Amino acid sequence: MIWLLAWAAFTRLPLILSGIIPFSFDHGRDSLAVLHLIKTLNPVFLGPWTSIPGLFFGPGWYYLLAPAYWLTQGSPLAGPLTMFSLSLIGIILAYKYLGVYEAIILATAPLWLQLATGAANPFPMTLVGLLLVIALKKGWNSLWLGLILGLGFHFSSALAILWLLVIPWLVKPKHWLKLLAGLFITFIPQLLFELKHNFSQTQAVISYFTAGESQSITPGKIAIVTQSIIHELNLAILPDVPWLAGLGVLIIAAGMRLHRFLVAALQSLVCLRSGTTGRSLSGKSFARPA
Fold it and tell me: Transmembrane stretches, by residue range (predicted)?
């Protein structure tokens, strides 16, 4: 595992420390919010806004960024350094609970590298997704499963809602109460905000679904989404260079049965889609701190 962590550091840290990092409007918004949290020490009950007007994510993203911003005295590198740390934690967890091949994918796949050298509020969903896979595979207590599931709503509600619809079917009904308890704990900040502000977010959601525009599902849209998923599955596992991808397949296949490879690929896709849902990785501006 040491050599995997060393490789991850070697391929990620130079980009971060040289200042080749994404920094656009969202990054500036998050920086101001976290610096205000550090300066005032006032508790934060909401995170970044969602695509629904008047609805916000939980504050987990801001609290996650706070230690690095405090240690670096507000440097723009704080966000990428936080994600780099989470990527190392992900490699360790994958190696310990899933296997060496899963850890290799997390350490070497191109989009995993890209997510570890940037900072946007959906990106921690890669670690949340990994924890969810581990919790289901290892049969963790349903309370912990609920906590992990609830954390998803602090970073990317679109995918977290999907999990919320699927996870209860994978848990015995007698454990649903623990699952709900864990989920409830993660929503305490938002609930406190709602009580103080006359349930403004609840009203925003109701207004959105009663007066919002409907989106039709067409074969063309289905084809676009399918192509996107297939492309991201490829990038989640192997380089976007044909001969390197072929070499990677041969190396993995040499010591790994096909079904094990497919399981590792699926786990990687679940975690990766967690971090890229609703967020384009292209078209970013870059900042090089002085």
Answer: 42-65, 77-99, 111-136, 143-170
